[in-house]
Amino acid sequence: MDDLPSEYDVIVIGTGMTESIVAAAASRVGKRVLHLDNNEYYGGMWAAFNFDGLQKWLGECQNKAPELEHESTDNLLKEGDTLIKAGSQFATVFNIEEKWFIPEELVEKEGEAQATKESQTEGEGQAKGDHEGDQEKGEKESSESEKRDSAQSRCWSQAKLKTLYRKFNLDLAPKLLYARGSLVELLISSNIARYAEFRSVSRVLTYIHGKLEVVPCSRADVFSTNEISVVEKRMLMKLLTLCHEYAKDPDNKEFQGFEDKTFVEYLDSKKLTDNLTHYVLYAIAMSTQKTTCMEGIERTQRFLTSLGRYGNTPFLWPMYGSGELPQCFCRLCAVFGGVYHLKRAANSVIVSGSRCAGIVSGSQRLATDHLVMAVSDAPKSFLLSTPKGGLSRGIFITDRSILAGNKEMLTLLQFPPQDSAGELVTVIEVGPTTNACPQGLYVVHMTCRQVKSAREDLCGAVNTLLHTEPCGGNYRQDTLSQATSTQKQEEGEGADISEAESQSKKPQLLWSLYFNCPETSSCDLSADVPENVHLCSGPDLDLDFEFAVRQAKEIFNKMYPDCEFLPRAPDPEEIVLDDDSEPGPAFIDNKTESEHDTADASATGQAQATE
Question: Which of 41, 300, 384, 537, CA to CA, is 20 to 30 A from 399?
Answer without folding.
Answer: 41
